[in-house]
Amino acid sequence: MTHQPDLAVIGGGQLARMMQPPAVGLGLRLRLLAEGPDVSAAQVIPDQVVGDHTSIDDLRTAVADAPVVTFDHEHVPPEHLRTLAAEGHACRPGPEALLYAQDKGEMRVRLSLLGIPCPLFEVLGRDSDDLDDLVDDMHDFGYPAVVKTTRGGYDGKGVWVVRGPEDLAEPFASGRELLAEELVDFRRELSVLVARRPNGDTVTYPVVESRQKDGVCFEVIAPAPDLAPDLAAEARRIATTIATELDVTGVLAVELYETTDGRILVNELAMRPHNTGHWSIDGAFTSQFENHVRAVLDLPLGPADPRQPWSVMVNVLGGSVTDLPAARDAALEADPTVHVHLYGKPVKPGRKVGHVTATGDDLDDVLGRARAAAALLTDG
Amino acid sequence: MTHQPDLAVIGGGQLARMMQPPAVGLGLRLRLLAEGPDVSAAQVIPDQVVGDHTSIDDLRTAVADAPVVTFDHEHVPPEHLRTLAAEGHACRPGPEALLYAQDKGEMRVRLSLLGIPCPLFEVLGRDSDDLDDLVDDMHDFGYPAVVKTTRGGYDGKGVWVVRGPEDLAEPFASGRELLAEELVDFRRELSVLVARRPNGDTVTYPVVESRQKDGVCFEVIAPAPDLAPDLAAEARRIATTIATELDVTGVLAVELYETTDGRILVNELAMRPHNTGHWSIDGAFTSQFENHVRAVLDLPLGPADPRQPWSVMVNVLGGSVTDLPAARDAALEADPTVHVHLYGKPVKPGRKVGHVTATGDDLDDVLGRARAAAALLTDG
């Protein structure tokens, strides 16, 4: 495999995997840095290097002769990204933007300076290794609150609801910098995706409702039902403002709260294709994966319009079903109108191993079909 | 790459390439027998063997531990298919069915026995190496006529219009068995695709109009405009009858004539995804490539319904444009609503190197957009 790649992708999970179908269509060649020889994306991208994304040597091998580099996750050390950039590879998103997806404290400070509505917050106990300092800071901030590690948390890990000083031992034991946030009284969670090119062009996907359990998304409805038009417009404006002001390239996902008193607040940012955009593969004119690839390569973006009035995506989280291919076939037999996606990953309890999308004119029907198919893939 | 493949694909052209995106989605692993290390499909399917599809040893290496085998083309020798079948690999389509896509004489005889409407025909000069025998046979058949090699022709190659004995030297010089057919007075060419599982389930795509020049398809309109409902039903009935009676598995393409006197006649058969079905990637609920893969693996088939009222596919045939990626970007910049597909093949004059699909509500608009994009990719 000696042909020059158009794009190096760091990380071999399902997000990298789902970049391959649009790359095939557009005639683009991907090179993968994979954690192992048979991880999800390594099963489908021929030009691959097996290595560690925290090793600059492995990164250099993977990106050799690739003009542009993008990511399956946000865990590449920023100093390595700066090294790759200095050596002539365009990192998209770049380290300056990625910082705000990697560090929730930096994100909160920056968004607040931009006037973006966020929960009340305070970065806690920086440079402190004393639990008493944390207790003092939280006394000033007030209870109840959410305490998060500023770095490294995902899917509900590294997040605690604290109702008094007695709940601080566990966050303190993480040994990481912590962020306190007000416990937002929210009606539901929303998400907006924006794809942005280096030239500044953006396309914005419809605002979706993201339903979560224990910090893990299990279901997405596109568009968010019964969302007031002014809130939808506000959510889209927030997302495009963040993408532009932070100079994000590729897909930016902005997770939001719709509060019970009718406000929109930013919860988290991700700078890559996002679980709340998987519906777009089957439900939008151009999927988030295609627009991510187009955006990071500075190609014209495709329309983000829905193909059908409603799309529902339900995650397949590892359950009692161990033979996913057989369950896929049973789900397609039961309802040939659903789209089943499998990631080629072994089943572990709660692990995201696939997703199902249904589309149509009637939300109740679409929701029922997507849930029924996902149930067959989870617990049979 | 040691994991067992779900499906071996023989031949590394664009048809095999376009099977990979749906395989990625469904969590299926393909193994490829490729003509070379960087042919179209070899760029996108990691598990690959480089070899010759006429070598039983290379075929055996490629299909090792693959339960099912399918094809990018119809050129694998039937005796090799029988060998692979005897060794436990399900060849789909099987050699008994594939014969009728490989040999136009056998096809005409069989379809006539099934009562399927075909042009008048006669298999010529079998076992003869004397031009005079051919001249005598054609005298009896009558002029003008079409003379074709029964095997090995494609895209207008191996087909001659003969108006008198003086036109027979060239077909005779092919050294191949020849078939004479009446010169059909047709209004237009149509095509119907059927995907069929081993269990007998079928789905049938809408009848499309296929526009050809010098025997090469350049444009497909889905569905065929202004087609009388009874002719559409007849075309679909013919296609499903052929798929069933010939025990075809996978996609069967039936190319048809709509005659000036309002009849449907079968022109040719192909037993694989077909150029006249490329519109389905962007225009149908389930693409022909996804349904081919599902069908040969005996998985439930997906709906073949159109997503939009009109889809137009225009082939990109190699022209004066040599930098296809730059032309792709220009085409997407000019019209972000078109879908550009590139096959990763070097440009040669007239070679199929990609295609463009546009979809929408207004046929003139859709046709204009698809043609404009394809023009940018052909001659700039």
Describe this structure in words.
Two copies of one chain form a homodimer. The radius of gyration of chain A is 21 Å and the shape is globular. The termini of chain A are far apart. The first copy, chain A, is of the alpha+beta class and 380 residues long. In chain A, helix 4 runs antiparallel to helix 5 and helix 5 packs across helix 6. At the A-B interface, helix 2, helix 12 and strand 17 of A face helix 2, helix 12 and strand 17 of B.
Query: Segments of chain A where pLDDT lies below 50 for 5+ residues?
Result: none
Q: What is the subunit arrangement here? A: homodimer
In the CATH scheme, the class of the largest domain in chain A would be Alpha Beta
Greatest interface: A-B, 47 and 47 residues
Query: Which percent bin holds the helix content of chain A?
Result: 25-40%
CATH arch. level architecture of the largest domain in chain A: 2-Layer Sandwich
What proportion strand of chain A?
25-35%
* CATH fold assignment of the largest domain in chain A: D-amino Acid Aminotransferase, Chain A, domain 1
Count of separate structural domains of chain A = 3
Number of helices of chain A: 13
Computed Rg of chain A: 21 Å
Overall shape of chain A:
globular
Q: Could you give a short account of the major beta sheet of chain A?
A: 9 strands, antiparallel
Q: CATH homologous superfamily of the largest domain in chain A - what is it?
A: ATP-grasp fold, B domain
Key terms for this structure?
Rossmann fold, alpha+beta, Dna Ligase, domain 1, five-stranded parallel β-sheet, 3 domains, D-amino Acid Aminotransferase, Chain A, domain 1, homodimer
